[in-house]
Design goal:
Blueprint (H helix, E strand, L loop, with lengths): L2 H11 L22 H7 L1 H13 L9 H15 L4 H5 L3 E5 L6 E3 L4 E5 H7 L3 H16 L2 H11 L9 H10 L1 H6 L1 H21 L4 H4 L1 H8 L14 H10 L1 H11 L9
Parallel strand pairs: 1-3
Antiparallel strand pairs: 2-3
Helix pairs in contact: 4-7, 7-11, 11-15, 13-14
The structure holds zinc ion (ZN).
Length: about 260
């Protein structure tokens, strides 16, 4: 059993009276290289580049889905902040753009980005959008970028000291390094799926409807083989998520109003 589930089951076992909002479902990674701040600082350029591109195209900010994106994000944020000291301290932010080439992402510093073009194209329901955003936020909570960079450094000669920026140069230049990282990157996706499903369930979004997103991904999956597969096949992700549905349902049910006692 992985750490994430063990913590969760302990929390659920603590008593039915425990409110869903108090569930801690994530684990705190340990033994990582560089500080969280160094990894966050290195990703600032990515965020700025995206903002500049959106501003230049006049496609920054929401137009059609403002209220629902903000409402979903706030509900997820409430749950995310309770997952670990790191998650509580992150300077979370939400940026909406309207770029065709952008879907959704979250940087190590908790900057969540989503494109309205993606929401429209995929016709995402509130539940499916909650899953997508929660998946991205789970990457920030679990410090997946820092974990992946730490693993990448283990594959390189240890005598050379490297900054986070140096690591990105190595990854840009070395296809073999990126291929060697595939298992770690794919494991990160499974973890983000699992924590994302549970977070969005704790935020009150029906788990089965959340999975509409991955069901569509699986239905659209083609047989092409990628040079580097950073993500597992969509249908494998779907299977893993379906295995977590009973747990997600239990968490979601804690968020539902309890039925009123019958009166005469
Ligand atoms: Zn992901």
């Amino acid at each position: 059993m992985n750490k994430l589930l063990r913590v969760l089951i302990l929390a659920l076992g603590a008593g039915a009276a425990a409110p869903a909002a108090a569930l801690a479902m994530a684990y705190e990674p340990s033994g990582l290289d560089w500080s969280a701040g160094e990894v966050e600082a290195a990703s600032q350029a990515t965020m700025q580049g995206l903002l500049d591109r959106a501003a230049k195209a006049g496609r920054i900010g929401c137009e059609r889905h403002c209220e629902r994106i903000e409402a979903i994000y706030q509900r997820l944020l409430h749950e995310a902040r309770q997952q670990s000291p790191h998650a509580a301290a992150l300077p979370w932010s939400l940026t909406v753009v309207r770029l065709q080439q952008v879907e959704a992402m979250a940087l190590p510093g908790g900057q969540v980005v989503v494109s309205e073009a993606f929401i429209d194209e995929r016709q995402l329901s509130d539940q499916a959008l909650a899953f997508v955003l929660a998946h991205e936020m789970a990457h920030s909570i679990l410090e997946h970028e820092r974990q992946a960079l730490t693993f990448a450094r283990m594959l390189l000669p240890q005598v050379v000291s490297r900054s986070v920026q140096d690591m990105y140069v190595e990854l840009d230049l070395s296809l073999s390094l990126l291929i060697a990282m595939e298992p770690v990157l794919q494991q990160g996706e499974f973890e983000a799926d699992e924590l994302g499903l549970l977070l969005a369930s704790a935020a009150g979004y029906a788990p089965e409807r959340q999975l509409d997103f991955i069901d569509d991904e699986c239905a659209a999956q083609d047989a092409s083989v990628k040079l580097v597969a950073t993500h597992p096949p969509a249908c494998t992700r779907q299977q893993q998520l379906q295995a977590r549905l009973p747990l997600a349902l239990r968490i979601w049910q804690l968020t539902l109003p309890s039925p009123r006692p019958a009166t005469d």
